């Protein structure tokens, strides 16, 4: 039995669960871009109202109004600022100078629609997932137990393996959606940042280099530690059956040793990623301040996507630890490969 056999045996149920994850996260990743447009629309309304107020001021002459209007427009746009290309999204906006508030409705309605999809599908997924994966775990536990009894494997080891097999469920119910979420967030953030400035997106891509080498080292060092931990874990019921508190204390001390080493490697991986982020921040700060002139909404979107990219990337060490654990459990249960189809 291994993870791929489980996925194959329950592919329809797992596909349903993961499709909800994809829909939820696609709706989420477009939200910062749309909300940035909402911010710009709100600012546009304030500008239109201010210009309208200047033009309707009866205490000033036409020349004074033109001068004040010119100074205000120069303040808003920045002296020497060039015209920015109009995106497809901006070209679809409806602007009415007589009723400027209406210009907010288009981006706001799209943002509300994306938010509703994200929230609605997210709620549905959290209701459906437990029903799907509890059903799968019941089947897995039954198969492991039946095969172990047939092969006269000790009850203590069988019980431990049934408990270890729950990591398959944890992976499929929680880690697999997190991996999909991080992939969507990472790729989506890179595409969105490329839309604002290709140099920002390219800078973020450079983090792949340290991640590749640290992850390669991580797998090499942590895999033996996961094996050591699971070897000890399979003895847990045997140790408790002896009813010796000193032996139990020594057992848990030994069980903690590989976990501490795994934690140290996770900390190392995290540190490398954080140093890389610091370099990325400095480059992006220079690009944003010195080379580009972004609107308030665009700055919000860039910051939101940057944090999305960072959050998705810095979560890698925890995901890698779970993957190494799953690989070792699969190796232990490889003899239990006659997974019955539903």
**CATH 2nd-level architecture of the domain at 3-14 and 128-332:** Up-down Bundle
Number of helices, where a helix is a run of at least 4 consecutive DSSP H or I residues:
13
Helix content: over 70%
Shape: elongated
Largest sheet entry = none
Radius of gyration: 28 Å
> What is the string of helix and strand elements?
HHHHHHHHHHHHH
Strand content: under 5%
How far from one another are the termini? 15 Å
| CATH homologous superfamily assignment of the domain at 3-14 and 128-332 | ABC transporter type 1, transmembrane domain
What is the highest CATH level, the class of the domain at 3-14 and 128-332? Answer: Mainly Alpha
How many beta-strand elements? Answer: 0
Going by helix content, strand content and strand pairing, the class is mainly alpha
| Overall pLDDT | 76
Which regions contain 5 or more consecutive residues with pLDDT less than 50? 79-85, 94-98, 335-342
* CATH topology title of the domain at 3-14 and 128-332: ABC transporter transmembrane region fold
